[in-house]
Structures are given as C-alpha cells and as structure tokens.
Amino acid sequence: LSNPKINILFDSEPRAFIKDGDKIVTEIENVKTKERQKLVSDGVFIFIGMKPNIDLFRDKL
Fold first, then answer.
1. How far are the Cα atoms of 7, 18, 27, 40, 41 from residue 21, in angstroms, in the given order?
2. Which of 13, 47, 7, 8 is nearest to 30 (CA)?
C-alpha cells in the first residue's frame, strides 16, 4: 500500500483510544517488542484479520 496518509502497523495491538478535542489518540503496543507509542489522528480503522478463528466451533457449526 503506497498512500502517505495510511499507516499499517504489523504485530501491534491498540491499548487505548482517547478522545482529545476533535482528534483521537490511540495508544499502540508492539506485541513483539512491548514498545508503546501514541498516534494522533482524525479517525481509526481497525483490521482484525482475514480469517475468523472458528476452529474451536468446527464440529458445532
């Protein structure tokens, strides 16, 4: 993806969403390094994966 307005963060999970005026501050943790960072933005899109984890229910569905 080559759009300067979009950042894709791999191996990361959101830890907090904080409303700050008309902005959103998102605290992100890298799950491999445990490093945390705060990102300020106008909005947030969360992508949670391409395949749902339903193997636990395979024999029930």
1. 22, 10, 16, 11, 11
2. 13
Domain assignment present for 43: yes
Query: Looking at per-residue confidence, does 59 or 31 come out higher?
Result: 31
**What strands, in cross-sheet order, belong to the sheet with 12-20?**
12-20, 23-30, 36-41
Domain count, the chain: 1
How many Å is the maximal CA-CA distance in the chain?
48
Q: Give residue-wise pLDDT tens across range 16-55.
A: 999 999 999 999 999 999 999 999 999 887 777 677 777 8
* 2 occurs within a structural domain: no
Selected residue with higher pLDDT from 61 and 28: 28
In a domain, 3, yes or no: no
